[in-house]
C-alpha cells in the first residue's frame, strides 16, 4: 500500500521559518538602577541650571545647556519606562512628566528671550523645580 504524497507531506515535520521573526513582545522592564540614574541626572541638570542662573551675572548659556540636557533626560525617563508615556488621569506621573516638559520649554524660551526678563526666568525655573520635586516624590 502506497502512501499518497499529500499524506507524507502532512506527516513529515517541516522546518518552521516563523520563529518569532519580527514579532515583538512587551518591552522588558527597565532595571530600577537605570531609572534612579536618570532621575539623579535630571536632578543634577536642574541644579546646574539653578547655579548658572544664581551666578552674578547669570550664566545664561550654561543654564540653557542644562535645561536642554534636562529635556533630553525627561525624554529618556519616558523612553525607558521610568515614567508612563500617556496620562490616564491627572495628577499622575505621566501628567507630571508632560507638565515638566512644557515647563522646561517655557524656561528655555525665557532664557533665549532678548531682552531677558529675570522675573520670567525665575518664575519658569521655580515652576520646573517644583514639578521636578513633585515628580520625584510621587513617581521615582
Spell out the key features of this protein.
0% strand, 66% helix, mainly alpha
Characterise the protein shown here:
This protein is mainly alpha-helical and 140 residues long. 66% of the residues lie in helices and 0% in strands. It starts with a helix and ends with a helix. Mean pLDDT is 77; it is low at 1-26.
Q: Which term fits the overall shape?
A: elongated
Classification by helices and strands: mainly alpha
Main sheet record? none
Low-confidence stretches: 1-26
Q: Give the tally of β-strands.
A: 0
- SSE string, helices as H and strands as E: HHHHH
How far apart are the first and last residues' alpha carbons, in Å? 72 Å
So how many helices? 5
Report the β-strand fraction as a percent range: under 5%
- Please estimate the helix content: 55-70%
The average pLDDT value, as a whole number, equals 77
Q: Please give the radius of gyration in angstroms.
A: 25 Å
How would you summarize the topology of this molecule?
Layout: H1 5-11, H2 32-54, H3 60-79, H4 93-112, H5 118-139
Helix pairs in contact: 2-3, 2-5, 3-4, 4-5
Brief summary:
66% of the residues lie in helices and 0% in strands. It has 140 residues and is mostly helical.
